[in-house]
Amino acid sequence: RQLNPKVSAFQRRFVGEVRRCEEMEKTFTFLQQELRGAGRVLGPCPDSPRAPLAREALRVQEQSEQLAQELREVSRNRASLRGRLQELRQYLHVLRESQRFTSLPAPPGSPLRPRALSEREPILDPSLHQHLDRKINFVAGVIHPWRVSAFERLLWRACRGYLVASFVEMPEPMEDPATGESITWVIFLISYWGEQIGQKIRKISDCFHCHVYPYPESEASRADTMSGLHSQIQDLSVVLEETEQYLAQVLDKVMLALPTWRVQVQKMKAIYLVLNQCSFDVTEKCLIAEVWCPVRDLTQVQDALRQGSYKSGSSVECFVQRIPTTESPPTLIRTNKFTAGFQSIVDAYGVASYQEVNPAPYAIITFPFIFAIMFGDVGHGLLMFLFALWMVLCENSPSLRQASNEIWMTFFEGRYLILLMGAFSIYTGFIYNECFSKATVIFPSAWSVATMANHSSWSSAYLATHPSLTLDPNVTGVFQGPYPFGIDPIWSLATNHLNFLNSFKMKMSVVLGIVHMGFGVLLGVFNHVHFQQRHRLVLELLPEMVFLLALFGYLVFLIFYKWVKFSAANSRVAPSILIHFIDMFLFTSNAENLPLYRGQVAVQTVLVVLALASVPVLLLGTPLYLCCRRRAPRTGCPAVRRGSRRRGSAGGAQWGLTAGAVPVQPVAAGEQEPLLEGQEAGSSVNATKEDVESGGHSPDAEHLDFAEIFMHQAIHTIEYCLGCVSNTASYLRLWALSLAHAR
Description:
It is built from 23 helices and eleven strands.
């Protein structure tokens, strides 16, 4: 618990140590980025090291900063060497490729080559010097291939054609220092006349980020330059290789030490953050901390404090003392690898208050089953089940647990959830009789085509003109009883297959949804009984159940009643449940829609009146009761604390907790004397003396603000009444998505 709420985070006692930990974490982040840049993956810490002492922390800080400094220097040297080596190679390619543009004719006595009019004709032909009054100059370099066309066009326009530009691709690709991509650069050689044109060419080259290199005029100078470049490239390659080897050695040291350092610094930072939440007594000899701790873990806390005192060499042991309080403890729900996935789904909607019913155990069954209603298919469910089973059987594999892909980790952490979803999908797939959306004949069909054919005397001419034949269940022997399990496979051949499934799945979704919501509301019984708020059973739970069952429970009754009362013989005169349900809210009857039973209109009127009457009871019952109870004279009855609640999204299910918790106050060092002035030994830092004497219940503990209670109850009433309607309609997605999956 935070015992220094009025102290700024930058003014607390251990803020310097926290900053030191953050600086080390920044250094660790830089080291990890260097490892990632070198293509190395940092593994997890093989063991669980303890938090370092102050001297060890200084050693870790010094070593990490030294390694980071070495990496910075080596990386900087390697980058400069690579850049210099790339420039030398580009320069060498420029001289090689431009040699054929500026090469002189063969010496006398050698065989003459044929002269042809070509763009590749050497521009330093001596015969051309007779027509040139000015000296020819050159600009050579490399340019990005994407900029060649624009560069050439601008040169031509700016210099008005007083130049000769030649372009050729480099024989091998090289890395772009800006992006790191491998690019095939383009070599250019520009010959021009006049110094002003040369200045324009150089300025345009700079604008296009060209790498311009000096170009010797004579062929002998170019040959000497190329030989010098060869020797420089060899020397730089040797130095770069040694630099790479030294960098690999430094990275190996980082790989070995960084996982352990990160865990140690994280633990040390967590300790200092906790110490910043503690407070000192007036003598500044005792460090006081208030902690919520589960009752079953109290012995572990005491043992840990005892071991800490022994290892730190303290002459006085830390001690733990339970203190009374009126605050509601935090929620702790213990999970394992099987229940963690389901609990995280429940927590995504809201964490239950202390000691409320936890709906996660029920969600272990309801969540996969409701998913399977939408995903019912034996084949698809089997694939999902086998995939989850493989993850469960190989869950201890390091390659699966240490994967960095976020999507994969989501699947892996929910492997047991996917396993049950696949198993339930196989079950509902057998009910739907679908395997990869195809029906399977596990049992013989209950419909007899032969009996219908014998009864109808279908002729060959009739069969030729009627591609679809109707099986009448009213004919004796055509329908021999219900299919043993699931839907009869003959429905997959029927043209009215979709109409049949629409009616079946729509009613099934409504029935399951209302049962699910009713179960959620009934879970509130455990909360009301546990918190000794029995008035809520009458003023909240009863109106909620009346509202739900009088409207939507009656709808479920109509569905089953219609299924039972009407058979194939009188199905054509069966009334519409939807029209009856609409007339129920309008307090009318429809002559064209026959009633299902006698007195149906009167029964429906009474149910609607009961549902409407339950709303004001739900809205005003609890606030008025608490207001009257507060004004009543005290007779020594035990006070009842009003527990905070958070309701589920479907049906108002109240959520709860598993284990109890009590506040714990460990004290470090000092004698067992009053911790603060004006308080007795053992009292809480944020509890008064009267609170301790009254057992944690102050005289104002039962003070209830009527406006706040009424506002809370009004929000709950509106949410519940609208939720019953919207959630019932929302459960129809089971029908819609099931049909979409089958299609």
